[in-house]
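Researcher: For the record, we're logging two predictions in this thread. I'll number them. Prediction 1 follows.
Model: Prediction 1, sequence and structure:
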Amino acid sequence: MKKTPNFLLCLLILIATILVGCQPNASNGEDKVKPVNASSKSAHPLANKKIALIMQQNLGTFSAQYIEGVKEQVASFGGTTTVFTSEGDLAKMASNIDAAVNQGFDGILIDHGTKEALNQGVEKAIENEIPVVAFDAGVDVKGVPVLEQGDQKMAEMTLNKLKEDSNGKANIVKIWVAGFAPMERRQIAYKEFLTDNPDIKEVAAFGAATQNTALDTQAQMEAILKQYPNEGDITAVWAAWDEFAKGAVRAIEQAGRTDIKVYSIDMSDEDLQMMQKEKSPWVASAAVDPTDIGRIQVRYLYQKINGESPSDQVVLEPVFVDTEKLPNTNVTTNELHEYIKGWGASDQGYTDALKELENQ
């Protein structure tokens, strides 16, 4: 048999050595995997959640600040937020809930809406083990917390101030719209107020929620002012929503009517700026900090995600903002707590588990 030359044998040994060196190191027959870094190993079980925020309407600075609060709190818990807006269309809102369920979100936040439109979708979410928490919505499903702002109390606060300023005798214009759960609750207090104060009379009422609510309200208020052109014809405007108040205030200012005062519900930075203008007709409002509302709603949703069982009804404590309490320099809602007791920075909804999550 012919012998293999020495150089050829050496070459074969060299190739075999190289091939062995290129094989992956193995343990128990499996390739070794790089160790997971310590931070992901210790990730909190509530971290990295995907949250859907489904809104009936996204209008004005109140909504903007509310969304800001939601996103801020979710981010502090290590999650992400996707906002679904419905342009006031309840059918689209119901469709958005279905979409959030089908896309497998970890939790759903709802802003406004009626039970007729939303209950079925919310029930579907619960069946799919997706927790839901609503704000100012007519949702009526067991196990779904609904936050409200103490709407009747806010109405009473502003109406009582109107009564005080007018010595119990006034002609008022009401700006209000049906079909929204908080508006319906505010209307209850309004009706009771008129019954208890027969010398305070409603001379006109209107209101519609549109994509340009403040502008449309302004046009309607201008028409009302032409109907009642004399001093004393209208003593005050009671606006059940700050978007209504904005339109009314602009109409009154443009008409040069210094005899009419405006009382409202809800508060935003834009509202506060208008209230602080010299000789502004907008003298008072009752509200909960919209940024805080968003934060608190998120906390209750994370309680649900964590397997806890908060109450199905959560009432937020409103604050009365009187322009007489504000300083001469302009302030924003972030600074309002320095002048108005109880404003902002609420700890409502926090639990030890959520504080631990936020710290991580």
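Researcher: Logged. Prediction 2.
Model: Prediction 2, sequence and structure:
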Amino acid sequence: MARPTARLTVLSGPSGVGKGTVVAEVRRRHPEVWVSVSMTTRRPRPGEVDGEHYHFVEDEHFDWMVANGELLEWAEFAGNRYGTPVAPVREQLAAGAPALLEIELQGARQVRGRAPEAQLVFLAPPSWAELVSRLAGRGSEPPEVQNRRLAIAQAELDAAGEFDAVVVNDDVARAAEELVGLLTAPPPDLRPEDSAPE
């Protein structure tokens, strides 16, 4: 029985690199690409739509999802929890269509553990100076908060070697197209050059 060519692709990278912007561009250019919607225990922000930006749930429901293995990955940030419901991802892949997750490094590592066949893509900034500029431009945070954020970003950048592919976000449209190319490429064990008899 032939294996489906659909593949789970995880996009991760340091804070401030533009993951959300690149995924939004993918959706705009390729509405057929399915992007997982994360679940969170935090309250909706103004303009956020339940089921579109996040699935907003109570702590008790999130606890139940964790206890019953219903999350592919989950993590806690700033006192709120975020996770990827596993059922919609499985349904998408079973239908033979690629699935895209946009998550943080901690979640990407969990996916690697639970779904080793997943393709992990690291979104990198054009340069460290550019990332510093983006992070510094996020608001008037105290220097110690900025320094902590930069230290985390450096640690996240150092993890690029754990990923299957690296996409540099030097141009949002180009990065989006490169990501779609990775999404739609057949898994390595199904590529013609790998199918020759031994």
